[in-house]
Design a protein that fits this description.
The chain is α/β, with parallel strands linked by helices. It has 14 helices and eight strands. Strand 6 and strand 7 form a beta hairpin. Helix 13 packs antiparallel against helix 14. It is globular and about 65 Å long. The relative contact order is 0.11.
């Protein structure tokens, strides 16, 4: 196991009715900006409930944060936060709202002489402070409620990039599985696939004798395999939703990634597909991952065999056959969740591989993966195989 430092200071309020604890988590004299996405939090009554819980406090609101939150939209919230001297942000929604709110938090405090996009260009390394934030999660998927990362898209330039900063780690997160009951099946499936791939990015690399992390990861994978399909047919099964919600948080809060090598090439390749073609984030992961696993099966050989045995119970046949079986089973799981695994299945007439590779080069993604050995030539082969 490699050396690591793990600090996860986010307070989690998990379970039914925990929105009622919201007021106690906020400074009584705070000037609070509530951020949210589309109309679902309005239609469900959640926004009204939050307003009621926080009655008498100084509240502002900014809605319309889209899936794959855009710089263009978020800058409107940055201007509002600055103008109203907002000193706390409350994100109400899924990972996109949370990611966008993290950008708002950092950008509002950023050097006014700089374009806040510089935060993304420097991967957050120059962020020195941010507005504190909390979250009410409505879509388990990204784990953004308990980590310091965010991904933002700049529509005008076709860029989708990430940043990290400890200053944007949420102070608290309310996780009530009941709030996920009304999610469309597509969002439920996307969330399960997103969390599943988050785990594999930290697990399917190479062995470092990190038995604790491996078994945590395998337990989360098995939970998502069991509960994911159930969530599509039993949308108000509390136990199913609770296990999915907590699995998605643990998939990317640092726990299973501590002391182990990590990959993230699937995400980097997928981000460019979203930016160019507009696919959902999870859809791009389902497209890229099987192709990437085939391309890197030699480098990931030992962990792929472990994955085949412990997650898919594949114990017979040659090593090559077991690895083939594990990759095929992974693809089949995504398909059973309703997520297609070929780019052409999404009606994309032209993969635009040259454009995708150009953006990878522009973003410095020319030596990615746990070994740093996925160059642009290998990325091209993966994109072609994913077509």
């Amino acid at each position: 196991m490699n050396n690591f430092t793990l600090h996860t200071p986010t307070k989690i309020l998990f379970g039914k009715g925990q929105v009622a604890q919201l007021r106690a988590q906020l400074p009584h004299d705070a000037r609070i900006l509530i951020t949210y996405g589309g109309g679902s939090v309005v239609r469900s009554g959640l926004l009204a409930q939050i307003r009621s819980e926080l009655a008498g406090m100084t509240l502002f609101e900014f809605g319309g944060i889209e899936p794959n939150p855009t710089y263009e939209t978020l800058m409107g919230a940055v201007e509002l936060a600055r103008a109203e001297r907002v000193d706390f942000l409350l994100a109400v929604g899924g990972g996109s709202v949370l990611d966008g709110t993290k950008f708002i938090a950092a950008a509002a405090h950023y050097d006014p002489a700089r374009d806040p996009w510089h935060i993304l260009e420097t991967v957050g390394n120059e962020v020195r402070s941010a507005i504190p934030l909390g979250a009410v999660l409505t879509l388990p998927a990204t784990g953004s409620e308990m980590n310091m990362g965010a991904v933002v898209t700049r529509r005008s330039t076709g860029d989708k990039v990430h940043f990290f900063s400890p200053f944007v780690m949420p102070r608290f997160a309310v996780l009530d599985p009941v709030l996920t009951y009304t999610l469309p099946a597509r969002q439920v499936a996307n969330g399960v696939v997103d969390a599943f791939v988050h785990i594999l990015e930290q697990y399917l690399t190479y062995p470092v004798n990190a038995k604790v992390q491996d078994r945590f990861a395998e337990g989360l994978l098995l939970t998502l395999l069991e509960e994911g399909p159930k969530a599509l047919v039993e949308p108000e099964n509390y136990e199913v939703r609770a296990n999915i919600m907590w699995s998605a948080t643990l998939a990317l809060n640092g726990l299973i990634g501590a002391g182990v090598p990590q990959d993230w090439a699937t995400h980097m390749l997928g981000h460019e597909i979203t930016a160019l073609h507009g696919l959902d984030h999870a859809q791009t992961l389902a497209v890229v991952l099987p192709a990437l696993l085939q391309a890197k099966r030699q480098q990931k050989h030992a962990k792929l065999l472990q994955y085949a045995e412990r997650v898919w119970d594949l114990r017979s046949g040659s090593e090559a056959e077991r690895i083939d079986g594990a990759i095929a089973a992974t693809r089949d799981f995504f398909e059973r969740m309703g997520i297609k695994t070929r780019l052409r299945d999404y009606g994309v007439a032209d993969a635009g591989i040259d454009t995708l590779l150009g953006k990878l080069a522009e973003h410095g993604m020319t030596a990615i993966g746990e070994h740093g050995d996925i160059d642009l030539v290998q990325s091209q082969h993966i994109y072609e195989a994913a077509w």
